[in-house]
Description:
Blueprint: E1 11-13, E2 22-23, E3 26-32, E4 38-43, E5 52-54, E6 67-69, E7 85-91, E8 97-103, E9 111-114, E10 119-122, H1 129-132
Antiparallel strand pairs: 1-7, 2-3, 3-4, 3-6, 4-5, 7-8, 8-9, 9-10
Amino acid sequence: MGILKDIGTYEYNCPHCMENLRAKEGIEFHTRNEKGKMRPIFLDPDLGKYEFYYDYSHVFKDKEKVDFSCPHCEINLKSSKHSDYVEILMVVSEDVKFEVLFSRLYGVKRTYIVMEDYVEKHGDDMLDFDELYEI
C-alpha cells in the first residue's frame, strides 16, 4: 500500500465543511447519475480496494461520470483542478492532511494521494500523475 501503511489510521473529510465522511458501511457520499437520480453510496475506506455498497435500484453505466457530494453540506466534490475526479481530504492528524483524488467515471479504478513531494497511486487504471495535469 505504499507510504500510507506506515501512517496507521486516518479519516476522510469533506474539503468544504471538514466533516468526517466515514460511516459504519464505509466512506459515505451522495451520488447523482446522468439521469439526475441521487442515492447514497458507501466506498471501501481501504486504499486500493474498490468495493462499494449502494441502493441497487440506482443504475450506473460503465464509464458514466458520477457526481459525488458531501452527505453533510451537499456540496459537489468534483475537483476544481481535475474535472474527472472527486477530491476529498485524508486526515492523519490535525496538522497532517493530504488531498485524495479518485475517478468519477464509474468502473474506473484510479486513486491518487497527493502529498507535498510525493504522489501515491492506487488502482488498475492508472495514469502517470503528470498526465493528470494534462487532462
